[in-house]
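Lab notebook, bench 4. Continuing the backlog of folding jobs that were queued last week. Each job is logged with the same field layout so the records can be merged later without manual cleanup. Today's entry covers Ubiquitin-protein ligase molybdopterin-converting factor, a 510-residue chain. Filled in by technician R.K.

JOB TYPE: sequence-to-structure
TARGET: Ubiquitin-protein ligase molybdopterin-converting factor
LENGTH: 510
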Amino acid sequence: MSSFVERTATSNKAQLAATALVSGALVATAILGYQRAQQHHHHQQNNPRRSRRASSVAGTATQPISHGKSVPLDQEDLRNQALARRAQAGDYDDELILEQLARNRVFLTDGGLEKLRNSFVVVVGCGGVGSHCTAALARSGVSKIRLIDFDQVTLSSLNRHAVATLADVGIPKVQCLQRRLAAIAPWVQFDMRQEKYWEPVADRLLETWTGTDLKPDFVVDAIDNIDTKVSLLKYCHDHGLPVISAMGAGCKSDPTRIMVGDIGIGTDDRLSRATRRRLKLLGITKGIPTVFSTEKTGDGKAELLPLPEDEFAKGKVGDLGVLPEFRVRILPVLGTMPAVFGYTVANHVILSITGYPTDYATAKGRDKLYDGLLAAVQGGEERMLRHLTNGDASVTLGLKVPITPADMAFLAEDIYKARSAITGLPTRLTLIRWKKPTGTTLIRIGEGADEQKSSNLKLGDLVCMTKEEATRHDKLILRGDQTHEDLYDSATISKVEALMNEAASYEKYR
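JOB STATUS: finished
OUTPUT FIELD FOLLOWS
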């Protein structure tokens, strides 16, 4: 019996099983603690009588969760941590650092390397993409790195994480990175924030480096949650923080198709497309560099959708998630691809900080197109209102439409793919109401000189056509007596209405 127990205790499988069980228990503890904090926060937000108390303890719900397992430090770890403390305190020969960075030094020049060594970078998301990006930044000379991630290393992380080992399973990803990279670049200072990035704590998580007025030189978005991703990019855009966003590495297999380009460049990548759509609705159509893949799906390739029937049988996504809006299934990811994405992100950050020339694909200059589409919509609303008031031109004076050039970009590019919904033609495009209004389109607020006039137009009211098609549509349907069935076949009507419903579903994000 004793020999059996001894064999079992020393068995690799038994050790792995024990590691997995302990890790699972620790992750569950972290998840439950996070959920309780979230519930407490939302309860206080929704209780007006406790608003003052909520404001005084709001940080409690967003403090770093520290339920990960403690790391048993071996002799090598202890030496690495001791060396890191000495190096960060200045007790480390600068010539050794320069020798380690010699290849970067001759490439970037002394001035470029100095900029890099004095830089401060924030990495949000420390999984496959973020870990490889962080490792490259630390190896290249960035001296101050803030790591933001609430998650922990799991067994399934090891196919793509830059530095995690079996010994790291169950510990926070931010701690794992610091632990391993201290053995490579001990002079790098890490500010570890084991918590979820979200809008209420953005000011704190993206604040200056502790004890200084040094703002982030760059922010890396390596988040795979669309709501959080959009929130981070919007914050950086509004606050003038340089940021680069990594799009989806899932289901990608061709490293030659990965490129850097502006957020305004169209791509069929799901995460890229969804992010671009949401940002356009927030008024951001360009100015954010992204790393994405132009690879197309095909027969035999991995797919995110459709889900197999057994996934649907498990229930709704909201019922399955261990955390609010957290992924609930393992995505198909080839372990090499997040590394390529991460190194491409790091490469852009390094070149940007040091001022090294870059020559990436540029966004299409279509601002004039969007302004022209908006002018056409404005003119269409004025004509419609005059028609509804029997030619009274005075009602259109000062009329405003609740639509922006960014809305035009979203509709034209992302909903209608820069083609007419009627014939598919890509030339001389415009946007026009699909349905004849049943009542007035005018909204009036105030009186006299303080009166405000606006149209009741919504995104889901508009359809993309060529100017010739729109002229006929306006004459025969909007200001005439014909119906859609008189002008279009059933397939076209169904297609248009499906696209309009898709556009309407995005109203909540504006």
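OBSERVATION: Residues 1-5, 38-68, 311-329 have pLDDT under 50 and may be disordered.
SIGNED: R.K.
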